[in-house]
């Protein structure tokens, strides 16, 4: 305390405070020795200096006003140190506590600006969660969480759950607004949160096809002037009216949205214009649609709009418009880099690793899909307009090919040429199709393989199996991994009955493409011919898993189960066929036969009757039904079936005899006599008819009985002579064959047995011809089994 002195009472403690303080004049600090020395020393060890002005901490530098001259200090010896006093003078108290000083600070004490010697700071006060503002913040967080959960639920496919979350978010947001109003902070309502809740709710209503509710929610947003850019949502409202097929209102809202969006948002305006064009297209207003699409193609061309523009011009029949639109379509830039960047060009392992990583990433898949879509649209439009833009479709195809060759899609020209050949095929002009396809024999391997595959298909249809085999070999040599070419090759070997080799080709086709259904089907047929029924059944069961509800495949499975002796499984599979094709008379007849073999006469009668109802000309079905009613003594019902058989085979006397027999068994002798008399007039030498005429005439006491008896004897004698001639001819032929066998030295002739009958008929070729994927299939069919009356 010896360094602390009190001020004298008559001393002015506040003198000099209104004058300019030269201490804060920093321009001459570099030349101030005392200041530089103070920087190099600690605060407590600075040399003592006396102040020139008593009662202040300012000294050493003469005072100067803003108008006077400033005189630099002679030395720093006169500059007082803060806290220092003159000898014999008391230290005045000043307001420097905020800088870390106290009035009781001792000379030489440590300068503590941060107050670290005061001890730890008091603990922070905890949040008061019961406060209204904290409750509001918690509620806002819950609303945001519900919006996020709603969006995530929709992205995972749970549309109903997303809607429930959106509704709950709306309820909590309304409760939040009410709490704001009650707390008197209505001015601080979060409009962005309200906008998000309403927009999400409207979207979820739309996704759940609750269109009225969605429109009402959008109206709430649009009518609220406090939201920013609500007019854009009129596009969504237009989309809803489009889904409802209310096209006039959709156009109205699209145009309202277009008016409220500035020209700065060019991409948004283009999309709305595209929507307007699509609506006009749906309404059949093609000229208005063309106007919209042409504007888009001038401002921001894209593939979809160009495709729609071609369709509209085709609908109006404008040839020049179609040509112009097609040229605009093929000139649209895709914005896709060259695919060579995905091919390793150096030996740098790191670069190759990067290429391997990106050559199948999302970006590459998007580029590939975009290119495939563009090629599909161009091919479709070319095939569509080619017959319409010129006098003949060949000239139209040639024009399209020339335009494509001059564009960035030059590789599509060959595909268009092949489509030209396919069009010739559809028009049954096989010669032109063959000539067109033969032009590809000297092209690159891919196109050559496709053309040769189609040529093999054509020659196979014409049953020129040698040429079909030749072009199948050519297609295989051009591209050994072409499954269609392998299937065609297998078919040509199949018809030569080399079933083992055919099976090898079909297996190779399946190895190259496991989804080649033609190869799998034909492999099953080949196994059937080789009598490998279990392997054939395995092939067709696999094919049934791929081609659901294919009646041909299920028929093959049923036929195989029948051949394996499992009639119940065969019936079950045929029932599945009936569920797909309920009016197929042959399948119904087959079901009737299987039930008849199982002894279920009532079920057999039902299916045979259904088969007769859909196809009343199947003689086997008619025979079974007539025989059934004869066996059950319902002769009147049998008459209609035998009369139908008489109409189908009028030269066969047996059906007319069966009709007469039914009349006779039912007791209608007069009708039976008339029927026999009609038969006798058509077939006067029929012995059976004459016998029944003699019997009926005798029973009825008719005078014609003697005449019929005489004719009967004559007919029996003629029949006996004919039978003797046939027997003598057979005996002479058998003696000749016996002599020839004795004369031949060990040469034997193979005996050909007739094929086993089944419900699925012989060999049927179903060859599809498409660009790059034409293939041949064999559908085996068997002769229908027939029932005979005893």
UniProtKB/TrEMBL annotation:
Record keywords: TPR repeat
Q: Which InterPro entries match?
A: TPR-like_helical_dom_sf, TPR_rpt
Listed Basic and acidic residues bias regions? 719-734
In this chain the TPR repeats are located at: 231-264, 270-303, 483-516, 551-584, 585-618, 619-652, 653-686
- Superkingdom of origin: Eukaryota
UniProt keyword Repeat present? no
Residue segments, region Disordered: 108-133, 719-751
Please state what the protein is called. Intraflagellar transport 88 homolog
Q: State the organism of origin.
A: Oryzias latipes (Japanese rice fish)
Q: What is the lineage of its organism?
A: Eukaryota, Metazoa, Chordata, Craniata, Vertebrata
